[in-house]
Amino acid sequence: MSGELAAPRAMFNPGSGRRRAGNALFRGVIIALGLLAILPFFVVIYHIIVKGAAAISWAFLTQLPKPVGETGGGMVNSIVGTLLLILLSVVLSVPFGVMTGVFISENKRTRLSSATRLLINVLQSVPSIVVGIVMYTWIVVPVRSFSALAGGIALALMMLPIVVKSTEEVLNLVPAGLKEGALALGVPYHTTILRMILPASLGGILSGVMLAVARVAGETAPLLFTAFGNPYLNANILKPVDAIPLMIYNYAKSPYASWLQMAWGASLVLIIIIFLMNIAVRSRRDTI
Amino acid sequence: MKAEKVFRGTLSGTSYIVMILIGGIFLTLLIGAWPSIVAFKLPFLFTTVWDPVKENFGAATFIVGTLLTSFMALLISIPFSLSIALLLGEYYRSGIFSRIIRTFVDLLASVPSVVYGLWGIAVLIPAVRLIERQLHVVPYGVGMFTAAVILAIMILPYSASIAIEVIKLVPDDLRSAGFAIGATRREMIFNVVFPYARSGILAGFLLSLGRALGETMAVTLVIGNVIQLPKTIFSPGNTLASVIASQFTEANGSLHLAAMIELALVLFIITTIINGISHQVIIRLGGEVHA
Q1: Is A196 on the interface with B (CB under 8 A)?
Q2: Which of B21, B113, B153 sits opposite A123 (nearest CB)?
Q3: The pTM is what?
Q4: Has residue A115 been placed in a domain?
Q5: DSSP string computed for A153-169
Q6: Which of B220, B115, B113 is CA-nearest to residue A49?
Q7: Which residues constitute the domain of residue A246?
Q8: Which residues of chain A have a CB within 8 Å of the CB of B218?
């Protein structure tokens, strides 16, 4: 679709002055409300940049948090924790999600694939706090400890629907002739999928994964009862870890001005990470 | 041929694992909530008492809080969301202006909930306090209204992006026919575009309502976390999600924990139904609309 359908020129428009005025007024209101709708974005970003930049320094990015009462301290534990959680969730959700996406794209109208598509939508609608409670029951209670693993699985569950859907969409764009040609040459089905279809759609799948990572990198609710938070550096997946959004939440609740400032600093770091990923996906899409 | 069978089997196996996951989530909540379901039965949904000391629990306060904030958020977001949809789906379908606006709408959706919450604490709560002083109500700053405003900002991109796509799906022939009988663009929008795109636009609103119902962090930070039935739209209170976020780890006693999990079960059922309806409508519209 290229461009919008033009309304007839005013000189041919039989509308009376009042109707034309109403039309112009309506257009004005729509433009005003539309611009007003994205105003909160600029207000939020303005505050994050102004208040966040004041908090960020090399020490802030590389030091551990200081105990209550001491000034200074940083967020390196939550940066490392977030990286660990994202790594875990990608490892757990991407292979399975891509396979599920291949299945529902390859079997368009079977009962099993329609049911799967429906259930993936259900999974996407599960509130993040509910995912947190379920993972608390599944992992934290049996292991008897909050852990990075529980948090990683919770985030993997949130990523899964995005990975499945984007994989399905990308595979649907692969020309049918490619697959038919391979099968006609006698190439086995699994070789066709693994060696032709998936490599052909790798870029699109990666975009989907990045979008999913950008989405869960800011998730807090699923981590409250799973990763829990940890003021020390930790790379043991069976022990609790901190995460940037968890840190923002804990500092945002606090009454101390210096902690609130650290929450702003952490927000700026998180927003930069998420926006960079979004813009990367966007520019990839434009070039495809 | 054996490798091929294994491969096909693995692919369809993923479907069964997804089923087990969803079934497992539902069963986990049901089993976890069971002591509370047995103890309080159906009145759990209609009583407002929440007393961890006497171990007497009811969900009505939180259900009212959840519905009140979410519907207020939906009402606030509707005019803005429709304007964005008409702007990008009707007036400026392509070009640099539309791409810029579209990018900002998408970025609005990518700001994490907890960051909106922090912004709410620092900026929105003082602003609401000023409004409350003008209206001569108790200037808490925190409360239902503040939560609804934040939620409205957060859900706007979801309803808007679906409405943009369904408005673009309206056939240009119909638009031309509207113009041909002398309609202005405004008249054409109200008599051709809206009737044609109605169900899709409604589905988008329903989907954004589902988001608002389950939204946790931003709401928890600005709603006041008081367990009482809201008297006005400015009252501090709690939603299902916010009370779980702020009290789950402090739950002592098995019945308290079970009641918390039953709140999660109620939330899960409400959001699944709302989202289920909107997804069915969207699927019926055809493959070009992505939720």
Answers
A1: no
A2: B21
A3: 0.93
A4: yes
A5: HHHHHHHHHHHHHHHHH
A6: B115
A7: 79-255
A8: none
* CATH code at B2-284: 1.10.3720.10
Identify the CA nearest to B152 among candidates B243, B93, B231, B84.
B84
Domain residue limits, chain B: 2-284
Contact between residue B116 and residue B151 where contact means Cβ atoms under 8 Å apart:
no
**A91 domain residue, yes or no:** yes
Contact yes or no for B216 and A129 at CB 8 A: yes
ipTM of this complex: 0.93
Min Cα distance B38 → chain A (Å) is 20
User: Is A103 part of any domain?
Assistant: yes
| Number of domain units in chain A | 1
Q: State the Cα–Cα distance between residues B166 and B157, nearest whole angstrom.
A: 14
Look up the CATH number of the domain holding residue A188. Answer: 1.10.3720.10
pLDDT in tens, A165-202: 999 999 999 988 988 999 999 999 989 999 989 999 99
* d(C-alpha A112, C-alpha A110), whole Å: 5
Selecting from B18, B115, B249 the residue whose C-beta is nearest the C-beta of A218 gives B115
Is residue A276 a part of any domain in this protein?
A: no
Determine, for residues B186 and A22 on separate chains, whether the beta-carbon distance falls below 8 Å: yes
Q: Do A218 and B113 touch (CB under 8 A)?
A: yes
Looking at the complex, does the CB of residue B51 fall below 8 Å from at least one CB of chain A?
no
